[in-house]
Design a protein that fits this description.
Blueprint lengths: L5 E3 H7 L7 H17 L3 E2 L6 E3 H17 L2
Antiparallel strand pairs: 1-3, 2-3
Length: 72
């Protein structure tokens, strides 16, 4: 994972506001999908602050959405 792919939750949400219109919506998604997000390396804690691996998180959103459509 390249460090330049890491964004704060706030910065990620702002750049993806068409998907996560509020900070609360992103926090809810992370809370409910934490296990899958961790498996897909979409979250990181390089310091005490939770960071989003931008590329992996985008991919995870697609995978989680596809699974939801398939009923998994």
């Amino acid at each position: 994972m390249a460090l330049n792919n890491l964004l704060s939750m706030e910065d990620y949400q702002k750049s993806r506001s068409h998907i996560f219109p509020s900070k609360a919506s992103l926090e809810w998604f992370v809370r409910t999908q934490r296990e899958t997000l961790m498996e897909l390396n979409a979250l990181s804690w390089p310091t005490r602050k939770l960071m989003v691996n931008e590329l992996a998180f985008d991919n995870a959103v697609v995978i989680i959405g596809q699974r939801a459509l398939q009923g998994d």
